[in-house]
Amino acid sequence: MVKFLKSLFKSKPQKIVEVLPYGARFEVPGGQTLLESALQHDVPFPHNCTVGTCGSCKCRLKQGEVKAITDFGYTLSKQELDAGYILACQAVPRGDLTVVEVESGALDVPPPEKFIGRIVATEPLTHDILKVTLELDRPVRFVAGQYANIKSPNVPRARCYSFADAPERKGRSLVSFMVRKVPGGAFTEALFDGRLDDLQLEVDAPHGSFGLRSSAAPMVCIAGGSGLAPLLSLLEDARKSRVRRRCVLLFGARTQADLYALDQIKAIGGGWQDQFEFVPVLSAEPADSDWNGARGMVTEFIALSLSNADWAGIEGYLCGPPGMIDAAIGVMTALGVRLESIHYDKFTDESHAATMA
After folding, report:
1. What integer pLDDT is reported at residue 3 of this predicted model?
2. pTM
3. N- or C-end of the chain: fewer Cβ atoms within 10 A?
4. Count of CA atoms in the C-beta half-sphere (13 A) of 276
């Protein structure tokens, strides 16, 4: 009987996690996620949203098993799942030893801060994309490609929007975003109607790990819809920094009316230090229109974008809706691009957030 009671109440096996390349090794209490425990042990694990949507805590599972609180496939691509990637904020270790590897080339980003902002200008870019300029109470420092969480006092949850400007060394007080209208969305409906014009907005920034890596490799940039914003920030910053590497920018839109920022793209290309090519691709342009450019899905033009390229040495920078991102990753990896060389930012809206709630 005593032996039975001892076996009944004996302590559960420890769940040990090791995080590479930090060399950190620690125990994870039952039910706690890998990210929660890593942060409690002062491991500088990349993270932001903590609910499985931003992908900042993406890491590769090298050994062991984890249980997913929410499906990793919502944020990660099939190729990443097949390669063993997981989201630390949604992963609960199952075995005695779990080993994960964090991307060693992650960006060195400033810590997020709280700001107060007011809308000082709006500019319609298309029928459903609005350029919004905020004036902040003090300059914000960020890396090109990062985003801000913006909250209105009349809307319960903050929304995430990428900076559309190139950063400045001492920070920027005037910052702009390209916001797509979500039908029925509480925040964007109020924004497009002008109901946020006189309100104080809470801004939490910067966030995110999307950004240009230090490399001389040719780069293929692919944008869809308002996903052009972070790429404009990234490319304008690279132009100002006189980055010298070949670049192709593919922009997927429905019709000519959905193209925007063309003068800005032309200026970036005119000041680029190497070859720069811009390829807009229209998926729903009327057949009898005067459009002489590319037609179809933007991912159909990836293989044609770089002639005689060694795709194993290409870097990809992708921003836009989840379907476009997943398709682009599939095409690029099939061409030979290394999964680790593809960097992306999936643009989700309020309907996606409701699914994750």
Report:
1. 53
2. 0.86
3. N
4. 17
